[in-house]
Amino acid sequence: MAPKAVKASxxxxxxxxxxxxxxxxxxxxxxxxxxADANPIIEVIQRFLAHAQPGTGATIEKFVALVALYKVVxxxxxxxxxxxxxxxxxxISISEHDPVAQEIIQWVSAExxxxxxxxxxxxxxxxxxxxxxxxxxxxGMDVELRGQPKRHSDDVxxxxxxxxxxxxxxxxxxxFARTGSVTGTKSPLERGGVVDYxxxxxxxxxxxxxxxxxxxxxxxxxxxxxxxxxxxxGSTNISFSSGKVDPYSGHLWSTVxxxxxxxxxxxxxxxxxxxxxxxxxxxxxxxxxxxxxxCGIPYRRGYLFYGPPGTGKTSFSxxxxxxxxxxxxxxxxxxxxxxxxxLHRLFLALPRKCIVVxxxxxxxxxxxxxxxxxxxxxxxxxxxAPAPLELPNxxxxxxxxxxxxxxxxRNMVTLSGLLNAIDGNASAEGRLLIMTSNNPDILDEALxxxxxxxxxxxxxxxxxxxMHDIFKRLIGRAAIASKGYTEQQIEEFALTFSAKxxxxxxxxxxxxxxxxxxxxxxxxxxxxxxxxxEETRDQSPEEAVKESVPLVPPPGxxxxxxxxxxxPNALASLVSGLQG
Length: 580
Ligand SMILES: Nc1ncnc2c1ncn2[C@@H]1O[C@H](COP(=O)(O)OP(=O)(O)OP(=O)(O)O)[C@@H](O)[C@H]1O
Prior knowledge:
Elements: E1 4-7, E2 13-16, H1 29-38, H2 40-52, H3 59-88, E3 89-95, H4 99-113, E4 123-125, E5 157-159, E6 163-169, E7 172-179, E8 204-210, H5 215-231, E9 235-241, E10 254-259, H6 270-283, H7 286-295, E11 301-306, H8 313-324, E12 327-332, H9 340-348, E13 354-359, H10 415-423, E14 431-437, H11 445-448, E15 455-458, H12 464-482, H13 487-500, H14 508-517, H15 522-539, H16 544-547, E16 558-561, H17 570-579
Parallel strand pairs: 9-12, 11-14, 11-15, 12-13, 13-14, 15-16
Antiparallel strand pairs: 1-2, 3-8, 4-5, 6-7, 7-8, 9-10
Bound molecules: adenosine-5'-triphosphate (ATP).
The site of adenosine-5'-triphosphate has 17 residues, from helix 8 and helix 14.
Domain AAA+ ATPase: 299-459
GO cellular component, one term: mitochondrial inner membrane
Subcellular location: Mitochondrion inner membrane
């Protein structure tokens, strides 16, 4: 039992307690020692076996030996496990913030995590669940997903936690792994290894299945996409970018999922609404795709929505995306933080079918001058009540905290950079581009020429028929449902309201604001409307579009107005333009 001196591989003399390692009669002791000297793992296993024999060693020693064995064997097991997975499975890694990943998370959340009786862990999310693909509430309305219990705004949801989940689809097993960008799982195979374009690791998901073909994985992704279309057809993915990389996802685009804005909640001339929708639907039809391909025309389409602020340009774009079942991408150039390069990358990252909206294109400093310009601070709108966080300026220009006024921002996008991003040779095809503007006359003609802008649409102030509709929507529904009014009564109120409010004077946002404050009470609306008209008419800013010379569309570009006058047949001119 005396300790024996042995020579370690690095030349030091160490003392080892060897006696319990041997099991007499099985293998010569000197052979075992030689093997143990060469491999410490084998030595630990030998020690464990020696301690584990009945009647040898104390219980505590057996326990310590067991822990040591686990410590040694687990990396070996992981290595073997990874080797097997790598050799016999196919896998796909996706950044967690990619729309495809969100669809998979939605499916795993709904079909595996929520339904599993054996799930012992899940990440519970509440509040803004939109980042996880669960639709956020839109305009305060609760969302009902087809085939699922109605969701309420205070519901919580279970999504798969960081870690692994094994499930079956039919007869095929799948392994789903969700990994954090920093912590990650220990297994390199289940670590997504996804990095953003700056090389920073991303949260990611990995899907594995046995076999050497990617086909089952692609079928599974398709299955999740179809599931989303069927079960979550009440939602629209809205991505936005202000020029900076999203700090949460490290992506160029930040995405939220919103309940779909229905077209019938946009009050505008029904004919121009139908015309726009039909134009967009035709653009995405197979017939139109074939036409573009046959004629060698780049498959792109552009609209310019112009009109005073608050007339529904952005809202209509969102409703159109919902109608076309595609995602909406919003770019705000007015932040002064989007560079030419960034804009180009944003366009390259777009999916094939989507609507891209460049908001307030006139205010981003790209005027008729060909190049970057200093952005003049936007003309402040006259709000009906002062915004609580805005600090008024003192006569010397400093605000009430004594801070000097912010210098005007230097716009980083040049006109050529913008043109290159939207229809340069490297620019992606398939998107529907919508530019919105409060003052279209200052836009460079190069930006609005046919081919870049195919349809110009004026979003005007409210006309009586739109006033009638918005009254029924914002007051009528609630009054009938909870205050016992009849359809007939509401119709009369709506007609009176639309007759009282002067036409072409107020924007839909202004009327919406007034009616919302009446909280579904038609009497309150009727009593307050005259005072509101007087008060708001005075406050109503002289809108840039009203002052400016009406935009004359260049030849070949159709123009429609959403609120007034007979409409030119924009669709006919579009189709004839395409055909010839
Ligand atoms: N035509 C409309 N029908 C229904 N709601 C409208 C309409 N126009 C505006 N609104 C409401 O007014 C608000 C502002 O609308 P939106 O942001 O779409 O206007 P906009 O024309 O894009 O303004 P801006 O030029 O400032 O971007 C939203 O709450 C929207 O619901």
